[in-house]
Amino acid sequence: MDFFQVVAARASVRAFKKCEVSIEDLETIVDAGRKAPSGRNRQPWQFIIVRDSSTITKLGRIQKCIEGASAAIAVVMDEKASEYWKEDAAAAIENMLLATVALGYASLWVEGYVLLNEAYGKEVLAIPGALRLIALLPIGKPAGRVAQAQKRPLTEITHYERFGGARKG
């Protein structure tokens, strides 16, 4: 798939069927996250690849859909390393979501429930106290048909030269 096909195909999948996700594919996904831009190139991230089914089941307590995944990637951030750590996490996560689709898998950006259950997730994954568990990306094959959520038309959200400016030519 070329880049624009990947962008058009990326969808949030909450139902997975079990499949083999190779360690090489997971490392490729994490490498895409590692290559994301970060403020002042501080790279305040760490990533945990999870393949153990019992650990994935435990992480399912954070958000049920994680239980059905074949693997997961935890995004761990050092908020003291950069004032832009949240933006840096977002860039890394989006790169990994796109890489997941490019490799033929599906995922979901799980953040809200992770933050509500951060202490539990940190305990399950043995994350040191000073670091933040910011997101989990369950990875697998979708259990059903996948379609990207409806997006607003480009003409509705695009302005030219200034807010409200119309396209010329």
Label this structure with key terms.
7 helices, alpha+beta, 169 residues, NADH Oxidase
Structure description:
With about 170 residues, the chain is of the alpha+beta class. The protein has one domain: 3-Layer(aba) Sandwich (NADH Oxidase). About 35% of the residues lie in helices and about 15% in strands. Helix 1 (about 5-10) crosses helix 4. The longest helix is centred in the middle third of the chain and has 18 residues, at about 85-100. The relative contact order is 0.22.
CATH architecture: 3-Layer(aba) Sandwich
Radius of gyration: 17 Å
Helix/sheet category: alpha+beta
Instruction: List the domain count as a whole number.
Output: 1
Biggest sheet, open or closed, and with what strands and sense?
5 strands, antiparallel
* CATH class wording: Alpha Beta
Q: Name the helicity range.
A: 25-40%
Note the overall shape: globular
Number of strands: 5
Q: Give me the number of helical elements.
A: 7
In what range is the share of β-strand residues? 15-25%
Q: Per CATH, what is the topology?
A: NADH Oxidase
In N-to-C order, the SSE pattern is: HEHEHEHEHHEH
Q: Give the full name of the CATH homologous superfamily.
A: NADH Oxidase
Distance between the termini: 32 Å
Low-confidence residue ranges: none
Q: What value does the average pLDDT take?
A: 97
Short description:
The chain is an alpha+beta fold.
